[in-house]
Amino acid sequence: MNLSNAARRAVVLITMDVLIVVELTYAFSKCFSGTGDFSETFLKAYVPLFAPTIIGAFILLGRIKRRERREAAAAEAAAETRMAADA
After folding, report:
1. Distance separating alpha carbons of residues 47 and 52, to the nearest angstrom
2. pLDDT of 42-69, one tens digit each?
3. What is the pLDDT of residue 8?
4. What is the separation, in whole angstroms, between the first and last Cα of the chain?
5. pTM above threshold 0.70
């Protein structure tokens, strides 16, 4: 399956959003089932899950952006080649 870059970006963002909701759900369930301090339990449960999700999404979005730039540069070079051949 060949997705456009916009579709790839949408898939990354939707996946990131779903993962964040799942991570929040897990963190809150840990907080309410535990007997410790809510804030401490929340941070211990949420941050280790949240950080890799955000970092991974930024990495994937950066790769998609670089791919878009490469494709745009290749299309521009092809257009210049066609114009030179026509002249």
Report:
1. 9
2. 999 999 999 999 999 999 999 999 999 9
3. 93
4. 38
5. yes
- Torsion angle of the four alpha carbons 43, 47, 24, 63, in this order, in degrees rounded to the nearest 10: 170
Q: What is the DSSP string of 15-83?
A: HHHHHHHHHHHHHHHHHHHSSS-HHHHHHHHHHHHHHHHHHHHHHHHHHHHHHHHHHHHHHHHHHHHHH
Distance CA 66, CA 54 (A): 18
3-class SS at 86? helix
- Residue whose entry in the numeric block shows the structure tokens 């939707």: 14
Cα 28 from Cα 23, distance rounded (Å)? 9
